[in-house]
Specification:
3 helices; alpha/beta; 4-stranded mixed sheet
């Protein structure tokens, strides 16, 4: 955000769980941006490759184009025959997903 200094609360954190049906559930908190997206991808891709995955964005405060690229990469890693589902996006994050066309395929 213009004029706002980043705080440690903006740092992206991810927690991973597996649901009863084997779906990987990733809960993100903070900013998914150029600073955090590469680390997120490096951590998430091996866990989600070839598996249904749910990405919970309820606590994501900012989503940049680099964050969109990370979501796209995750979607490709999940692979055909599996599904990446995005849930609980705040209005500001949902607007980015909608304007970029991501809401059409995830």
């Amino acid at each position: 955000m213009f004029g706002k200094k980043k705080s440690k609360d903006d740092t992206l954190t991810a927690t991973y769980a597996e649901s009863d049906d084997g779906t990987i559930v990733i809960k993100l908190s903070g900013r998914l941006d150029s600073v955090s997206s590469n680390d997120f991808q490096s951590e998430a891709l091996p866990k989600c490759r070839g598996r249904n995955t749910t990405l919970d964005l309820e606590m994501v405060t900012y989503l940049s184009s680099a964050g969109l690229r990370a979501i796209l990469t995750l979607d490709k890693a999940v692979g055909k025959g599996n599904k990446l589902t995005v849930i609980n996006a705040k209005d500001s994050v949902k607007d980015v997903l909608d304007m970029s066309g991501f809401s059409e395929f995830i």
